[in-house]
Amino acid sequence: MMNWTTLQWVLLLASAVRIQSIGKLCFTVLEEQEAGVKIGSLSRNYSAPYQLHDETHIRVDESTGDLFTKERIDRETLCPTHQDGDCSFPNTALVGLNFDLVPIIIVVDDVNDNAPIFERNEIHIRIPEDASNGTGFPLDDQAQDKDTGNNGLIHYHLIGSDGFFGIRQDRYELELVVQRELDRETQENHFLVLVAVDGGSVPLSATANLIVTVRDVDDNCPEFDADSPITAIVAGLGIKGAAVAQLKATDKDLGKNAQITFSFSRQISDRAKALFHVDGHTGLISLAVDVQVDSSEKHMLKVLANSPLCPPAQTQVTVDIKPLASPEPTIKIRFVAEHKNQVIVLQENEPPTVLALLEIQDTSSDKGTLSLEADSMPFSLKPQKGSYLLSSSKPLDFEMCREYDVTVVISDPHGTRLHGRKVIKVVVEDVNDNAPKFNQTQYEKDIKENNRPGMSLLEMQATDADADLFGTVKYRLTDGGPFSIHEETGVISVAESLDREQQETYVLTVLARDGGDPSQEGFAVVIVRVLDLNDNPPAFSTPHFYFFVSESLPRLSQVGKIPVSDVDDGDNGRIMDVRILNEKVPFAMDLAQGSLRSTGEVDREMQDRYELLVVAVDGGRPALSTTVKITVFVEDVNDNKPQVLLPSSNLSCLTISPATQAGSMITKIYAIDEDSGMNSDITYQIVASEPALQSPFQIDQHSGNISLVQRLSGEDYGMHHLFVVVRDGGKPDPLQTTVWVNLLVNETLEKCQVSAVPEYLPATLPPPKTLPVKDCRGESNAWLVLLCGLGLMIISGGVLLVLAVVFIKHKHTKRKVKKRNTWESGNLCELNPLN
């Protein structure tokens, strides 16, 4: 198969005869855009499909004809030789079903993506110091910018010219313009920064160092230096060429402009002209002839310093020629102690020592004498067989004086004439006899805790009066802990962050050791106090407090202690406030006692526990706080009597059929107690009944169920009133309530009504029974058996008649019960909720 390129060329040749006259399409795109940017569409002029002959830089959507950039296009890379003109590249599109050829031109517009560039980082230019203001000097090292149009148009300005220079720019030339008078002698070099800025909307710039060297011109004249000699002394016996005086003159110019020639003025005397000579180049005045005079002579020499184009500078030198003198006596020194270059070296602390043997060498006939001047202590001079012994009179201290000038005076034997003096230098050599000393023996320094590790704390400084290595001090800590000391500078640093709560005070011993062998040490104590920061919030003894209180708790009673502390110091560790965050609770904090107190009534039946949040705030700035949870459980007090819900009143009534089987539950007493635990444990007890004979009914003391103990007989017909006591289990005094239970034994099961209960109420209710109910039942059955036996003995003759009557009546009653089952169920009412 043919590839796409081959197919394109085939189609191109095949359709060459059908090419119509089609104008070129031109599209514009900005350089440096991301790939995928739309630059136009062929669909406005031609129909699909669409293809491009060359997809190097752009691509086309075959169905929509939209043209997109295929890559980031760099104008300067694409058109390196067309930086001042348009940059474009051609392409050809195949459009429509007939594959018409459409020429395309893509124009790439410039963006300011290139900053100006100087070829060299430093530009040097030389300007004469006499250049007038406004004079321009071309700058050939101009910046280049690859962009075009305004983006490549460069403007220049200077930084650091101090008003001496400016920039003048036209289209093709760039000049440095002098704006202030230049003076090489004041400032020879000017260091400027030349800034090139392009004209882009967001301008880019470049800089180059512009070094302006001011070239010297001959604008200064010679001047004699202030320290040039104005007087000179010549010995009476002078040799030709001997130096008399050295003159100095300077010219601030450079090179040939600074050349100076020296000469004598014509105004000096002929005698002076014969005696002295001046070197024209160096300014050295010397003797022109050998000189020997018997009397003093004084000559005034006027010397000129000449330079081209300048009037000569003039100075005057006074020369005294002294006559020859008779020879003076001299001292010959024979050193005994160590000496170096005629200087005696003596170690300090040495006992009195002989230093030298002195002799007078005198050409005259009269011998002179030697003595020490008064300020030559602590030394002595003693005659010794025509010579003199020079000794130290006491041990010398290097730290008191390191060097002595011992003056020996030569005088005649009578001490009337001074012939001269000789100075002998004595240097004291140091020994390591001083230990380093601190300015004080104890230092104190405060530092805040939580410091930055490595911070400098204190600079220790010890001095040693010894010299050189003996006086060189190095420092160390005996037990630094978290501290360290620089061996040479004595700066104490803290290696780690300190915590006042861990340790509040550190005692450091700093040792200073000198460089002697053996060395000597001095020490000082540094007391470091760690200052507190409020970095610890208040702390409660436990994160959750539990307290139990009675609901009969009196007002302002203490519920429990709330220990809280803060390990910080001062106000930072002072608990300023402890308060309850909950609103409307019957408790408050007693800050003075550190306890929780009740402020109102607590009722377990209303709320059996309180969940409190208590916050403690310290006195720091800023303050820190901690919150703790407190749970207060309200314990029950037997303050509620049992409440009988069933029966609803003392006048409630229930009809009981005589045929009810023994052991059947008749009704139930239902009572509640709002207390809890034993205080709500309810028991039931029948304490009285009406009629007062043995009742056929009993009550379960725990459930309150009332049941029939024995089968009902004729004697049981009628109304039974049971007086029931309902007690709770409170200790030591239970609470109780009473209720009347009204039961009507009746065959007709007619609706039961009670208008009043018996008036009898016992003064004191008996305590609850502890015997089981079945024992009571046993006693009741025995009593009934006894009554039946007695009845049989009394009415033995009528037993058969009675049995017959009872049998007939019983059968009649059963028939009536069958007919009235529905009526019986309705009459059980609220006293028998279980039926």
Automatic annotation (TrEMBL):
Residues 32-118, 119-224, 241-354, 337-438, 439-540, 541-644, 648-760 form the Cadherin domain. Residues 1-19 form the signal peptide. GO terms for biological process: anatomical structure morphogenesis; homophilic cell adhesion via plasma membrane adhesion molecules. It is found in: Cell membrane. InterPro entries: Cadherin-like_dom, Cadherin-like_sf, Cadherin_CS, Cadherin_N, Protocadherin/Cadherin-CA. GO terms for cellular component: plasma membrane. The chain crosses the membrane at residues 782-808. Keywords: Calcium, Cell adhesion, Cell membrane, Glycoprotein, Membrane, Repeat, Signal, Transmembrane, Transmembrane helix. GO terms for molecular function: calcium ion binding. Gene3D superfamilies: Cadherins. It comes from the Eukaryota. It is a single-pass type I membrane protein. It holds the Pfam family Cadherin. This is Cadherin domain-containing protein.
